[in-house]
Design a protein that fits this description.
- Four copies of one chain form a homotetramer.
- In chain A, helix 1 crosses helix 12, helix 7 (133-141) packs parallel to helix 12 and helix 8 packs parallel to helix 10.
- Chain A is 31% helix and 20% strand.
- In chain A, strands 8-9-7-10-13-12-11 form a seven-stranded mixed sheet. Chain A has a six-stranded parallel sheet with strand order 2-1-3-4-6-5, with helices on both faces.
- Chain A is globular, with a radius of gyration of 20 Å.
- Chain A folds into two domains: 3-127, 3-Layer(aba) Sandwich (Rossmann fold); 152-320, Dihydrodipicolinate Reductase, domain 2 (2-Layer Sandwich).
- Chain A has helices spanning 13-23, 43-46, 63-68, 82-89, 108-115, 122-127, 133-141, 151-165, 198-201, 216-228, 261-271, 320-334, and strands at 3-8, 28-34, 72-75, 95-98, 129-130, 145-147, 177-183, 206-207, 234-240, 247-254, 278-281, 297-304, 309-316.
- In chain A, strand 12 (297-304) and strand 13 (309-316) form a beta hairpin.
- By secondary structure, the first copy, chain A, is α/β, with parallel strands linked by helices.
Chain lengths: 350, 350, 350, 350
């Protein structure tokens, strides 16, 4: 029996990526592909690359029908738009994986502050499980509602967690951990705007929301704080790379004295043993091409003996491990499938 | 009377950029364009975009003839290759502007350690003036030999200097200042290698020499140390952007408490008043397109109230302000010209 | 006395390029920079790369004030929008250079057919001079109203004209001349739309308006027909290159038997002698980088002995020789200046 | 029983693509991956994106061992290098799929002329089957030696074949059919050279081998001549797109009068019915993103009523349908598998 999966918000970049990946998943049958703008159109007419034998159509958001006829519903909506939909879906028997940020922050007031919008009810926030499988698998397996992590948080948390768990960080009191992050343009979504115009982005590179104002900051701090058992502060600056996909976080971690590069690598390998999507290494040129098109997170570790800082280069495909792929990984766990089902593609090179 | 200018190493990216810029300089006459590989060829045959009315040719490196018939000689050679050439040129009456790293480090042992090659004589190292005009103009004006700064050091030093001079930094003891830097591919030079192949670079983004091993580190630390009057340590990670030109340094500076964003901007504006190439601002999206094709350094300042860190985004064109343009700016100072002569081009947009 | 120049439509890509080029023109003073959307804003605030000492502002379209206080007015408006503006401006004493397509087609009915919009009055159409200086300089010099050519027509006409004038074409009766053209994305304008989104254009290449429906077709056919003294039909397919600037037309011309490659090159060189912006050659790899940033048109000629076809590769910067640079070249002619005034920039490489 | 497949020339772009695709093929087991330069190295150490559970190594070219232990051998060598290898392999019982051009031209003298190198023996040339499955499936099924088509020929032949077969072309006597083709950079191979340097290719677009001198011309003419039953001449100009993958041929076909666009589309659909990799349509913007990463050939048809020309836009991924994917499609036919086995990936978008 295949898992019946529906997608609400199926025509944005993460929605389309869910279609592409679920279409090739051996245990899934696509059910509803909701896109109000394109309701009634063949998927293959709007997206010629999805012109498959199955000949799917986009449909309208009939929540009740979707909930009753789906085993799992993916929500690939802009933030603030999932709150109502989840409130309704939760009444039914389907599992819910929300790719927006609406259920990631446990503290409703914190959500209100960063998103300038009322949070979901506290009971729903409590019920939501933060879906980063390498760290939270046990909870994910029994969850009904998954808050699928953001792209920057995924790369950042996976890159830092082993240091926290092994108490190797030695950050000066009242100082933040520096995360310098870079993302491809698909992270900005499909709706055209002046900042995604080809002529503005190509031949360019920019920082944005510098000075600690990006909305992924509270999410990263929350999850690292849970791991640390205390408040955790980061200094986070995102940048835009002139490529469609891929995301790199360069993390500057002051570590305890007298630990060697080898010990650190062993610590990471041990933390992530049995995690097939995590690759630990120390490459001369850690890059994005190695992960684009895959659900992998490549973590390259570089200890600077001069300074005692560990430079962590954490790289993912923002639309796969940073969104739709991780959502499917969560689904696999929720349905008792091998974590890698439908997620074994190798990177296209060159 | 025009300044007679020669270029040794005229067919690499910085050499070609010197030709382009000097060809349009109102006070300069190009004399020798030395390129052993292309000696005898018309410049316009090798580089169709330099097919100008002047119809220049590349020539062989006859140091004596060059020195005797030039007012200034630019050396655009790979590192370690300028040492011998400068030793000879210095015997003559011409001024010398060396774009390599061979005369940047004052301490010969430090050079030997980072470049694995014997340094130039200490007397030549002592004679060389580090050519960053916004900080060192007085010395540049009376110099005979200029060590033209590296691209990463230019963006980094210009971004940090006002903080040091105004004693606004508050770095924890024994911790480095974090500089996360990103450069276009022309910084890797013109000789093809697997890491500059289009198929490897495009659609990609990579870190390299992570862990504090890039050769621009001692140069940045030396110059910031001079400004600070004490040792200065940085944590520096370079990255490769899939664009031909442009360089950004994102600097994470813990600053003294109780200083406001406005005060910081005023401090920078004051430090750089009368410096026409430095633009101080606080842009929502500081980028490279604004500086590519210009000799400008754009410095965007972002104070994070949560953490007390100042994020400094310093952006240049690596081949102009980071190399050939700055070399001409130095020449202008050495010959008593306005600093902006021949360097007033606006950025091409889009 | 400097020429007082105003620009209506100063914030689009061709308008901004006019500002950049005219700002550096030794004989021009910028007067009004009209942009309704940005009226009152400093140009440098909207376009940081135009943050010059002159500190220009955008203004509202007060046609009377503009006409009375300008020697020349450039119209950089979308097609159909110049008709009214020109009708008013023509009442005054200023010269007018229109960069839209509204005055290019001599036949109003033809305009109506291709643009689905009523044409300008026949008297204005008659008065307008098609502004391709290498072919039409005498008329341009005494013109009041210039219809500045389209980008595709510029590259196409310059590439084909010498063959027509020397009666070297041998096209089978009732067959068209094939022009396969490729343009950078700035040709699509600054307003964001799904087809200019970075994620759609990067890593991609597309054809559009295939099957002979692009609006530059009647313009090219009109001008080549005038040169030929009879109707002239082309088969024209435009494509989109994932670069911001640059345009190439690959032209497939059946030529008379028994003419050699050398004779053809001589014929082109003779046709364009004294034309400083036209470069005639036969390069192994005719490309766009050689012309981007310049007002040049590079024409590379390749006779195929097997087939008797001449392959003509005609390359320009679509925003300079294909729009704003050519407009300034026309202005230079109209005001008795050397044609190259303000247009001598070399291409930036790499 | 899985097919034992070996690759000679496994570290170039087509070799690596064969590894990626065959690794995911349900009926194949990879046997020898020959790369002299990398013999003994783990594939995953050279290509981190191929760091799979199977942990393959590169090996030396022991032809006898390979032939005896493989059901099929793929040769992904530069042209002229397959001749000797095939001469040896043919003595054994394995099937051979050669991705070079060494066995594509049936006429040895023709090969000698275009490749400046002695051809393979006529008996081997006679034995080789040109491997374009949509046209030649019956012969492929019983072949021992496949000459896998070139990338430009694949897109060109698939785009033109239905017109020839249905006698719809109406080309003037002694005139060629114009094919204007554009390819991504991976077609130039993995070895770095000045023409594949990122700084030369990015922001650029170039024509090369204009004037009818590209080596794919005789291959296209041979195959179209076979279909036509008479000599067939093309005018072919390749161009380089600044993208790693993808290839488009824009074909200018004069067709018989009184045929409609609908009839033409029907004719193509009929010709390619049951061919799952061929998509026939008439898109407003036929592009490459729709095919990159797939084994598809998208053919978009545009009849120009004004001229009677049919514009055919034929698009493929040059490394898949233009090389390694088509090789696997041939293998599938030779071993009685469904043609689509291992080749069902959808395009990655965006």
């Amino acid at each position: 029996m295949k898992i019946k999966a529906s997608i609400i918000g199926a025509s944005g970049y993460t929605g389309v990526e869910l279609i592409r990946l679920l279409n090739a998943h051996p245990n899934v049958k696509l059910q509803y592909l909701v896109s109000e703008n394109n309701a009634g159109s063949k998927v293959g007419d709007i997206y010629p690359h999805l012109d498959t034998a199955d000949n799917y159509s986009f449909s309208n958001p009939d929540i009740e029908a979707i909930a009753k006829n789906s085993d799992v519903v993916f929500l690939a909506l802009p933030h603030t738009k999932s709150i109502t939909a989840v409130s309704k879906l939760i009444e039914y028997n389907c599992k819910i994986i929300d790719l927006s940020s609406d259920f990631r922050l446990k503290n409703g007031a914190n959500y209100q502050k960063w998103y300038q919008h009322p949070a979901a009810s506290q009971s729903l926030l409590d019920q939501a499980v933060y879906g980063i499988p390498e760290i939270n698998a046990a909870n994910i397996k029994r969850a009904t509602l998954i808050a699928n992590p953001g792209c920057y948080p995924t790369a950042s948390i996976l890159g830092i967690a082993p240091l926290i768990k092994n108490q190797l960080l030695d950050i000066p009191l009242n100082h933040p951990l520096v995360i310098d992050a870079k993302s491809g343009v698909s992270g900005a979504g499909k709706t055209p705007n002046p900042h995604t115009h080809f002529c503005e982005v190509s031949n360019n590179f920019s920082a944005y929301q510098a000075g600690g104002i990006h909305r992924h900051i509270p999410e990263i701090e929350q999850e690292l704080g849970i791991l640390a058992g205390k408040d955790f502060t980061i200094q986070f600056t995102p940048h835009l790379i002139p490529i469609p996909r891929g995301l790199m976080a360069t993390i500057y971690a002051p570590v305890k004295k007298n630990i060697s590069q080898t010990e650190i690598i062993d610590c990471y390998k041990s933390f992530y043993q049995h995690q097939e999507f995590i690759k630990i290494n120390s490459l001369p040129r850690p890059d994005l091409k190695t992960v684009i098109g895959t659900n992998n997170c490549n973590i390259s570790l570089h200890l600077d003996q001069r300074t005692g800082y560990l430079i962590i280069i954490s790289a993912i495909d923002n639309l796969i491990k940073g969104a739709s792929g991780q959502a499917i990984q969560n689904m696999n766990l929720m349905f008792g499938l091998p974590e890698t089902s439908g997620l074994t593609q190798l990177a296209i090179y060159p």
